[in-house]
Amino acid sequence: MDLKTTYIHEETEPIYVGGTSATISTSDGKYLVTPLNEDVIITDLETNEIYHKIPGDDEDENITSLCITPNGENLAICSQSQQLRIFNLPSKTIIKTFKLSSPVYISTVDSTSTLFAFGGSDGVVTVWDIEGGYITHSLKGHGTTICSITIYGELNNLKSWKLASGDTMGTVKIWDLSKKKCLHTLKDHNTAVRAVSFNSNGEIFLTGGRDQIVIIYNTKNFKQLFTHPINEQIEASGFIDYIGGKEFFYTGGSNNILRIWNVKSGQLMAQSPQPLKTNEELLIIDIIKLMNQNLYLVISDQTLIEIDCQPNEEEVEEIKIVEDDDDMEIDQTIILPIIKRIAGNQGIIADSRYVGPNKEYLAMATNSPSLRIINFQKPFELKICEGHTDILNALDVSSDGLWIATASKDGEAKLWKWNYETETFDCFATFKGHSGSVTAIAINNILNNHNEPKFIITGSNDLTIKKWNIPTTSNTIVKSSIYTRRAHDKDINSIDISPNDEFFATASYDKLGKIWSVESGETIGILKGHKRGLWDINFYKFDKYVATGSGDKTIKIWSLNDFSCIKTLEGHTNSIQRVKFFNSLQPQLISVGADGLVKIWDFKNEENLKTLDNHDNRIWSLALKDDEGKEFITADSDGKITKWIDNTEEENLILQNQQKEKIEKEQNLNNFMKDNDWENAFLLALTLNHSMKLYNVLKSCIETKQDEDSIIGSFKLESIISKLNNDQLILLFKKIRDWNINFKFFEISQILISVVLKNYSVSKLIEIPGIMKIIDSILPYNERHYNRIDELIEETYVLDYTVEQMNQLLT
Q1: At residue 784, what are phi and psi to the nearest 5 degrees?
Q2: pTM
């Protein structure tokens, strides 16, 4: 048997779903804490594994705020139900719960990991002592929702502890925590204040608002020192040591760019790379500063970006020191390098392929304009390839995994080439010509002498297909296709090219599949028979077959000789999104559908060999690593990715060993019975869970009667029964129940009950989980057996009477 039948799986699920900001342990950057609707996920960024998952509170309300201490030991969780939970990471337990006065949408912690502060929607600031587990301050004064908060304090100096809070009406309050009173009220913003921050020595203070300005204050009297226009709605701001240990301030917000500014002059010193302008409106919702001064940007699409804020020597040399030693100027804004991206979730994964030199990466077309690439070894880290301006619909990859073709809603197709130095893909060519969204794409299979693909085929919702030659130079825009054909009457959902590059196939909503000549672009066959639109089409590489998957819940296999349907596979309960052939020795298929199921099919026998279930939602994507089906990927509309690995050989070997072991045990059982070794025979028969063999062991033991005074025929066997564990007793009572039903076998069951009750107290039996339910099913049959015996005894009296009367007649 060369069929693949069993698979084990590994999965990567979203770790960040919700509008609340993430939080990171800033001392080492090890723990990332993110909301997953009403749950909380703690991820170890060093191992790239989930450290712990905290389920939601009893009300199952969404998380509204998260805050982890810098040392990574305690976590504050606030939910919509106003519940505050303090979670201890080392013990992985909730150590305190408390009901707050209102929902909390912003929280912070001091640098010494001793105090949490929570800004309520009722305008109350609550300060929490972590070690003591109680409220230390309840600061009232804001008349509306708190939307920014920070704590400043110096160790061993209680008088220095201050708290600043800003609200949605533009008011900022400075609180003295030692005196528990408001020191200053600032009303210099006219919209929500999203950032409040003290510098490292507490001498200056910053506020940033959605009115697009940052104001710097002197903390002695809280008079304005500088006001800097930022030209974007500010969502996060603070101080950072950037060049020569000097302090600057950073901002992030609606432009989705981190920028570092000179405190005095307001000159832009450095910024993160400018993202490509697309239809996707992203913004920075929070910025987390680590102890090493690197910054994590929390983006609105639940992506986190770590920015390297430590300038290299060349950048430092470009800095001009002016007369004022505290001020600096630069000729050109420094571009801050990105260290890594973390994807909290991938969104809807519409298509995917194995890519890279060893196909160790996964490329994904998602509801994002960027081509997303992840490494299976670090599944939460993300690389993006920017180029398209609207979401990706489909992608394909060359046979060597070094070229990717992408189709986008922006009406363009792009070809990407692997860059060995950067270990990512660079845009090689852009193909423009379709008047609508490009919905399907395929790369040819046979590479040229330079290991480059020769052409691509694209399909669009303008109902046409186009063949494009691939240019020889990079960064080329191709505007002329080799040919254009009107292909279908409705959207084209899938294109596949035959292994020899002679034909290509298209699948459409118009219920038709079509086979085309690559050379001429003419139709040579029409696949007609589905009752609903087609989602996918795929050539079998080792024979003249093509498979189609449809919204009518069927897979059809077509012959390329006469384009007739030779097989129809049924089994899915909803639309089939993807179907792929695999296995060169015996044709098989894998299909995935809107029912969230993965099915493995035997082509020859038209049989569903296995149904794999690890998705809760529609599966859009299916990618095979090789043509033999040893490994494949499925991805769904929730962003969940499952890797399936063939273990058919291992499973078959296990089954063979189990069968061999079973045969050996049965032989041993026969030998034990032959030698009248009832104890071992009993235990082995019970282990094998073989009812009749166990019955025969007990019956033979009773008949042999090694010990005359033993009710079961052997005191040794009684001793064995008295030492059974709970699982063995449960199994034995199940056998008693089964035998007790039948009049032929009930005697043995009654003898066993007698032996068990003799060796086990009722209190011991009652404690065994599940055994009373079995005993309850035994009792009615016991009553029936005893009633029958009583009736037989009564009948014997009649017989005795008859015999006695006959004797009297004879005398």
Answers
A1: -65, -45
A2: 0.82
